[in-house]
Every structure is written in C-alpha cells, then in structure tokens.
Here is the input.
Amino acid sequence: MDEWLKTRNLPLHFISVAGLVYKGDEVLLIKSKRRGWEIPGGVVEQGEDIMSGLKREIFEESGIVAEPEKFVGIYQRLNTKDGYGPLEGMILPPVVNLTFICKYIDGNENVSDESIEVGWFTPNIAKEKITAPDIKKKVCDMLEFDGKQHFSTFENIDSKIKFISDILVK
Here is the structure.
C-alpha cells in the first residue's frame, strides 16, 4: 500500500510552467528581486490548464503575449522550501516545472510586481545574466534543445542546488 494512503497525507506538488520566448534572434528575460535574471513563469492556478497558465505567467511578468511551440522538459525539485513574500512563514511543497520554447506574438515589455526589469537578449548574453544554477540549467537545455525532452531532478538545500538526475527522453 502507498505510504500516503496509510498516513492520509495526500502527496502535494506545485505545478509550475516557464517559457523561453524568442523574438527573432533574442530571448526574453525578466529580473526578479529574489532570483535575479530568469525566464518568465510560475505556478499554474487551480482549475487552470497548463498552456493558459504559461501564457498568463509570461504576460503578467513581462507584458509579452507568447505562444508555446515546443515542450522542452520536466524539472522536479524534490524538497520543500521556506515561503517568501506573501507566503512567508509557510513551507512550500516540492515543484514539478514544465518548460516550453515560445514565440513572441505581441506586446511591449513591462515590469510587474514580480519583475523589476524586462529585456531581450542574445542567447549568449542571456546565459551570462542568469546566475541561479537550476534556472541556468533549464535555460541552457532550452537554448540547446534538439528535440529530446529533459527530465531533471534536483534538491535545493541551504540555497545550494544538488542535481540528482538528468535524463534525455527521445
């Protein structure tokens, strides 16, 4: 019998999405107060389908309307972590993050409550700007995407990323 059935503790994960948006030869990055430069994305809301959540998150964080074109991978953080901002004092569950390559459709760059800067960069400059190891891994996988999906598992312990596995699926 599964452990959660015995303990009556339902398994809980956040489902999040992130998109690397291309406009010509440049990609969209946002800068957040907490993580620095990254690609737009966030948690899919209850009752929301994944693609709508992806488009919403990109627009909310950057002012850009984008359309997903390719599914790149699944990135799973196995451990919980402390909440921040309005979630301070809470423990956040593990996350399953789905990543997509997207194309620019419309819109102008705008900052938001979640982004203090928004900009378009060449892929090489984008890689240089991103400092968080888990985000850099996702972005490098997206920039080097060859049609094989990634499944990457990691833990974030004491602000350090420990990668556990990285599998390419044909």
In short: The two ends are 32 Å apart (CA to CA). The CA atoms of residues 67 and 136 lie 22 Å apart.
